[in-house]
Design a protein that fits this description.
The protein has 15 helices and 22 strands. It is α+β, with helices and mostly antiparallel strands. It is elongated. It starts with a helix and ends in a 7-residue tail after the last helix.
């Protein structure tokens, strides 16, 4: 009994000498823990997904529609504000009636314009509808009117005014210097709903920071409960700081009231400005709210049973892999440590045990040879001991077993395919958003032409003062100043210049002109200058009045066109010309100038949209192909203006796999489970191979070399683990053998 107790104490002491950290234990334990966590995650995330409520994809789509509307509204208002401020600076010192006449020739979007003397509240000139001057002059004080004694700075800028009729107007007030006094240039414009096709099922609202409805379109929603909630939410969120890189203003979505199986999906977005961004309209506190009625789908995407089975299989595989690694890697290492420790202590009475693993068998055979040498035998080469499957192969088998579970989840199982049910509302929203993008590009190009026309008017006025209507000198500082100012104030241009009737450049600002040399200027319009090359060239032409064929040309920056078609949640977007060549594309995907659309169905859709042009609506389809599907839409330019002869259109394609539909959510969650399992297997088994298996190979080589007679190579451990402990014991054995070898024979002095 005492002998048995002493043996157990020695075993405990020997095991206590083993390191507790490092070696095979941490990676094996980590692998088991991670696989357990992956199994739990798989069972949780692969649950049944109920579609009884509105799909998240539909709600998100309404949010994007509202964001497009808010962006379009803000851009339109900013452009209007800039136009008035720039006109006031350009026409400074001119007669009030002449100022309003020139303004009316270039910009026809104002319902009313006026020039006011703030000192006495005198109306000097007016065009169009009456402007509420009391509101304009409310912030002025004093008698000076020159901005010094009587201050009018408080009234400058944009503001919203409610008319007695109930309509809302945006008033823009700019200082108009002239003579000894500063006058005020005032313009009144309608606050219209953004250019989104509403139709019979969609409602659009523009609200202020108090939630008051300023403009509306579509079915009446004033008495609906969700409308008040959305207005309060939009008004509250309009004061929040927007996230970097996202919509320049707060945005979100809500689920409105339910009527039978129909429910209202609501999106809202503030027409604000991002941090560090300059936007006069962004300070007005406006928000856009959109709503649409959607029929609920009672179907359920069932993946719960699959998730439980997959989690159970992974648990079983984890137990099998853990048991195999413990039996083939960790246990042989512990036994090698005990055997080597016994020999290092001089306990040579029994042979070294045989091992099954190849590396362990080689090391064990070498230890047996060393035991015999310690007893007086000669060094012998142990050879390559055949002990079954090597540790590397065993780890590889474990990796294959785990990959057999993770691979199908990552690549094969729960694939949504091309038969996923896509709500028709998403197709309609893709069409509406593409139509909105087309309208945004058209308006931006027309606004650019209006700016060029304004510059042409200014240059014409300067020529008349010089009494030389047939000549614009290259060194004319006034012309150069106008061009530089236009280029500086409008980032949409890469170059602004003046050409004569033969296409010769007389004065320019910005990059080198790309107007074809020797060709006369185009008629007042926006024209495409090339159909091949590395970069598209698009320019706005505006004739200089009374200057015999001379014109001001503003070339658009290609990056400006790219920014117009870049919108989140719209997929891939292309701006194409009448030959269906790509002129610009969204930043996220890039493009090759003047290349064709990437899909045949997109080209066919562009042809269909061209043949069936309607005023406010493009064309959209749900296109399915082998294993994939996408929602495609095309919207030609409509509405005329300077771009009426371009024949351009916007084409978009949204892969359905990018949408937040339950089928695709289940697919992504399945792929996530497979990816987590793959990561756990690769990380932990790779850790085990690097920390344990490779040193184990080196250990077998060192042990065989020592058993073969190598007494000079010092053995030192690289890690404080099982392999390192065996190496330390081998070094002690080497020192004992070297001492025995160097000891002189008995009787020799």
């Amino acid at each position: 009994m005492s002998a048995s107790r002493g043996t157990r104490r020695r075993k405990v002491r020997r095991r206590a000498d083993m390191p507790l950290l490092g070696g095979a234990r941490p990676p094996i334990a980590a692998l088991l823990a991670l696989l357990l966590a992956v199994a739990g995650t798989t069972a949780l995330v692969l649950g049944d997904r109920d579609r009884s409520a509105i799909d998240t994809a539909v709600l998100t789509s309404q949010q994007h529609v509202a964001e497009d509307g808010a962006l379009s509204l803000r851009a339109s208002l900013d452009e209007s504000i800039t136009d008035i401020q720039r006109a006031a600076a350009v026409y400074a010192g001119s007669d009030p009636d002449a100022v309003l006449d020139k303004l009316g020739k270039v910009y026809n979007k104002w319902r009313g314009t006026a020039v006011v003397d703030p000192a006495g509240g005198t109306l000097l000139a007016a065009r169009g509808e009456n402007i509420p001057l009391a509101t304009v002059l409310k912030g002025t004080s004093g008698k000076g009117g020159d901005g010094k004694d009587g201050k009018s700075d408080d009234v400058l800028g944009p503001r919203l005014v409610k008319l007695p009729s109930g309509d809302t107007r945006m008033l823009v007030v700019a200082a108009l210097p002239g003579g000894d006094a500063t006058r005020l240039l005032v313009a009144s414009g309608s606050l219209n709903v953004p250019g989104i096709s509403s139709g019979e099922d969609r409602s659009l609202l523009v609200v202020d920071s108090a939630g008051t409805v300023l403009a509306s379109d579509g079915p009446s929603v004033a008495r609906k409960a969700w409308a008040k909630t959305a207005r309060r939410t939009a008004a509250a969120d309009s004061s929040k700081t927007p996230e970097a890189g996202g919509h320049p203003g707060a945005s979100g979505h809500l689920m409105g009231d339910k009527r039978g199986d129909v429910r209202t999906a609501v999106g809202y977005a503030a027409a604000g400005r991002a941090p560090g961004e300059t936007s006069a309209a962004g300070t007005l506190g406006l928000s856009v709210i959109t709503s649409v009625e959607v029929t609920e789908d009672p179907a359920v995407v069932r993946t719960q049973a699959f998730g439980l089975v997959a989690a159970g299989v992974l648990l079983l595989l984890a137990l099998v892999v853990g048991w195999v690694l413990l039996r083939t890697v960790q246990r042989p290492l512990l036994q090698l440590y005990l055997e080597s420790r016994r020999l290092a202590r001089g306990e040579l009475d029994r042979p070294v045990a045989r091992f099954k693993g190849r590396e362990a068998a080689r090391t064990g055979a070498a230890l047996e040879s060393l035991r015999r040498q310690l007893l007086g035998g000669r060094p012998t080469r142990t050879g390559r001991a055949r002990g079954g499957i090597g540790a590397t192969a065993m780890v590889a088998v474990c990796a294959v077993v785990l990959l057999a579970w993770a691979g199908p989840l990552l690549l094969l199982v729960n694939r949504a395919g091309s038969t996923v049910t896509v709500p028709q509302q998403l197709v309609d929203d893709q069409r509406r958003r593409t139509d909105t993008a087309s309208d945004r590009v058209r308006k931006a190009l027309n606004e650019g032409w209006a700016d060029v026309a304004s510059a042409a008017q200014t240059i014409s006025g300067g020529e008349k003062k010089q009494n030389s209507p047939d000549k614009v000198g290259k060194d004319d500082k006034a012309v150069k100043t106008v061009l530089d100012t236009t280029l500086r104030e409008h980032s949409r241009y890469r170059a602004v210049y003046v050409i004569d009737g033969e296409g010769k450049v007389l004065s320019r600002a910005g990059d080198s002109p790309r107007h074809p040399a020797g060709k006369p200027p185009r008629p007042d319009s926006v024209a495409q200058l090339n159909t091949s090359g590395k970069e598209p060239a698009v320019a706005a032409y505006a004739a200089v009045p009374g200057a015999k064929g001379r014109a001001v040309v503003g070339e658009y920056d290609p990056q400006f066109l790219i920014s117009l078609v870049t919108r989140p949640g719209l997929g891939q977007v292309w701006l194409i010309d009448k030959g269906h060549r790509i002129v610009a594309a969204d930043r996220g995907h890039g493009f090759r100038a003047f290349s064709k659309l990437p899909g045949g169905h997109l080209r066919d859709l562009a042809v269909t949209a061209r043949e069936h042009t309607r005023k406010t609506s493009g064309t959209a389809i749900l296109h399915r192909s082998d294993g994939s599907s996408d929602i495609a839409a095309a919207a030609p330019f409509t509405g005329g203006g300077a771009v009426k002869d371009l024949g351009w259109q916007v084409v978009s394609s949204q892969p359905t796999s990018w949408l937040e539909l339950p089928e695709y959510s289940a697919q992504r969650r399945t792929m996530l489970a497979g990816l987590l399992g793959l990561t756990a297997a690769v990380a932990c088994l790779g850790w085990l191979y690097i920390i344990v298996i490779r040193p184990l190979h080196a250990l077998a080589d060192r042990a065989e070399a020592l058993a073969g007679g190598d007494r000079r190579t010092v053995l030192f451990p690289q890690h404080h683990d099982e392999v390192g402990a065996v190496v330390r014991n081998l070094e002690l054995i080497r020192q004992q053998l070297r001492t025995t070898t160097e000891r002189p024979p008995a009787g020799r002095n």
